[in-house]
Amino acid sequence: MADHAVPNLPSRDFDDTLTFYGGFGFELAYRDDGWLILSRGALRLEFFRFPDLVPEDSSFMCSIRVDDVDELYRKIEDAGVVVRPVGRPRLHPVRLQRWGQRVGFLVDPDGTQLNLIENLDAPSTRTTDSP
């Protein structure tokens, strides 16, 4: 296995976290009383129990880099996460950023922001806003 880093994110409730992320393709890889690991293909997210987390005060975030950001965005949207400027969970549309990458944003029920970033070398025909 190649060297890699994996984000460690908070979860107030592992069952809720598994249900939320499972809605768009993440599957249980490991679970015990204090740790939860979910994977979706090569993507891996690890969660630690944080029952006292106040989502409105959360500053946790990570980046997910994928070849097809539109596919991931659609899966999240199809799971019922809505586009809106505030609240949890929520989506922000995929947009071409001034630095040249396409990025969308997901805020999960615990207030963690996941930057959904299209890989630079990914084949893309889109140069404007996504769905």
Strand order of the largest sheet: 1-4-3-2
Broad structural category: alpha/beta
The CATH topology annotation reads as 2,3-Dihydroxybiphenyl 1,2-Dioxygenase, domain 1
Task: Please report the first level of CATH classification, the CATH class.
Answer: Alpha Beta
Sequence of secondary-structure elements = EHEEEEHEEE
The appropriate CATH architecture is Roll
Tally of individual domains: 1
Q: Estimate what percentage of residues fall within beta strands.
A: 35-45%
Task: Name the CATH superfamily assignment.
Answer: 2,3-Dihydroxybiphenyl 1,2-Dioxygenase, domain 1
Structural description of this entry:
With 131 residues, the protein is α/β, with parallel strands linked by helices. The protein has a single domain (8-51, 58-118), classed as Roll (2,3-Dihydroxybiphenyl 1,2-Dioxygenase, domain 1). Helices cover 15% and strands 36% of the residues. It has helices at residues 14-22, 69-78, and strands spanning 8-11, 27-31, 35-40, 43-49, 61-66, 90-96, 102-107, 113-118. The strands form two sheets. Strands 1-4-3-2 form a four-stranded mixed sheet, covered by helices on one side. The protein has a four-stranded mixed sheet with strand order 5-8-7-6, covered by helices on one side. A hairpin with a 2-residue loop joins β3 and β4 (43-49). The longest helix has 10 residues, at 69-78. 21% of the residues are buried.
